[in-house]
Amino acid sequence: MALYAVGDLQGCLDPLDRLLEQVRFDPAEDHLWLVGDLVNRGPDSLGCLRRVMDLGDAATTVLGNHDLHLLATAQGVRTPGGKDTLRPVLDAPDAADLLDWLAQRPLLHRDTASGWTLVHAGLPPAWDPETAARETRRVEAELRDPARRHALFEVMYGDEPSHWSPDLEGYERLRYTINACTRMRYLTADGGLEFAGNGPPEEAPSDLRPWFRMPGRAAAGHPIVFGHWAALGHRVGADWLALDSGCVWGNCMTLARLDHTDGDPARVTTWQTPCPA
After folding, report:
1. In this structure, what CATH number is given to the domain that contains residue 140?
2. Is 21 a member of any domain?
C-alpha cells in the first residue's frame, strides 16, 4: 500500500485528478492524505468535496481554515466574502451530507505505522504529540455535535489568546487550538501566535520565526506534513514537509509519497502538476 499526501486543493479538482492518475492511485490499495483547505478560491469546491468524500476510507483529510469558514458560513455565522467560491457547495442538493461529512473530519491525524502526523498549519512548540492529540480532540468533539457546533463557530473568530497555557479554559482554549492548527505560520520570540505575516521566511521581520524553526519544540523529531502556507511553498525540513505550493494562485499542486521513508522527509518522493491560470 502506498501512502500519499497532497497539498491544499482549495477548489482545484483537475490538478488533483491528474496527480492521482500520474501515480496510478488505487483506492482499493493506496491511501491519500489531504492537508486541509479542500475548498474556496478555486473553481470547483463542490467537486473537491465530492471527490474526497467518495474516496471513503482511502482518504484522510484534516480541517483547514477555509473548511472551517465554509462550515461557519453554512451555519449563518459568516457571510461569503468577495473572493469566496463557496456558493455552489451551499446550494448543492447534497449540501447537508457534504457539510456534515466535513464537520466530522479531524484537526489532526497521527499515523503510528509511518510515524507521520498530518495537520493543516502546524503544531505550537509547547505541544508534544500527546498534547496535540488531546487538545485537537476537544475541538473535534464540539464540531461533531450538531447541537454544539453553532456555538463554537460564534466564538471561533479572533486572534486571542496568542499564547498556550494548560490553564486556558472553555472557548479560549478551543480557539487557541483552532488558530494554531489551521492559521499559524509565524510566532513571536516568546512563542506567541502572530498572524500579520504570511510571506516567505526569508522576508519575515527579524522578531518573527516560522513555527517549525522555534527552538525547543516539544514535537521535534516527530515528522509533520502540513500545508496552509503558499508563500512557503513545497519545502523539506529535518522533521517537516510543507506541501502547499500555491495551486490556487496559478502555481503547482504537489503530491508526496510518505511510506518507505521511515519518517525522514528527505526520502519523500514528490510529483507536481501545473494548475490552470
Report:
1. 3.60.21.10
2. no
